[in-house]
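Q: My labmate handed me this sequence with no annotations at all. I'd like to see what the chain might look like in three dimensions before we decide whether it's worth expressing. Could you predict it?
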Amino acid sequence: MRDISHNSDPLSDRLLAWYDIHARRMPWRVSPQDRKAGVLPDPYRVWMSEVMLQQTTVVTVKDYFQRFTERWPTVSDLAAAQDADVMGEWAGLGYYARARNLLKCARQVVANHGGVFPADHAALLRLPGIGPYTAAAISSIAFDLPHAVLDGNVERVMARLRDIHTPLPEAKPILMREAEILTPDQRAGDYAQAVMDLGATICTPRNPACGICPWSEPCKARAEGTAPTLPKKTPKKAKPTRHGILYIGRRKDGAWLLETRPEKGLLGGMLGWPGSDWTDKDSPIPETPAPCAGDWQMVPGEVRHTFTHFHLRLAIYVATLPDEVTAERGHFAAPETFRPSDLPTVMRKAFDLARSAF
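A: Here is what I predict for the chain of 358 residues:
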């Protein structure tokens, strides 16, 4: 836990002065000038942005955030949304458990907190999909509570500032303690965003701009010449490759054979094509029967996609199906209701490969 007797540090003051001038403009952010003028951040927008930004870049998130908040302006609007609509809007953003937890969290905020995010760190941690980092980010940015944030940018900044060579992930507790020491009691939200901005724009993974960094003078790694090598990381194991099959069928009337994937597991609750399990076997021999009778033909080529823990290679089978066909799994979607953009990325890759065969 952070030392609550700690009020501020000259380093924090220096960083906040830099942030007042150089803060990045974000659609979910209240600028430091507006914040000083009394404009309060919307906890809903802070929460939404933090969930979307998990393992996803700011550039990618901006458009998704705009669409989500325009379609569902409040947490109550999101809580009342249809699951399929939310999953469809999320398609392409990846890490789909986040979308499922987004709905669960919104509904709990409405049911248990009157549609208002609790200004309490412990209460935030009890909500679905909110872990230690996200709870700290909401607590500090939305409510100005002095909770330290530790994302990849902040880890890098702390490791370099203190010249810490313990490799990640072992170094996380050490880096968190350094982040807690520097987090001020006043303007905690601005400070959290400032230190993340510093890592994103100045203290970058490669070629850090040490000459214009507000912390260049006290930075121990800069003095030692070790900044470009930090943070150290334990080498990752090579990702395995899994194989599978997808069946993409289209009736003569234009309807597509789709299925909604099970709630649990990868791509849970998302729209997709019927297919096999994904296995470690070298050859995607069809072990899962086709979803319906038809003249199924393999499409030349394959779909390749990489998830967090493995590479995936998929063989694609296509068939033009009679209008009276009965599907053993999945459902037919009329062409006017089917939007390829509702598919997760790997399923859209399969559609793009198969489309030329129809």
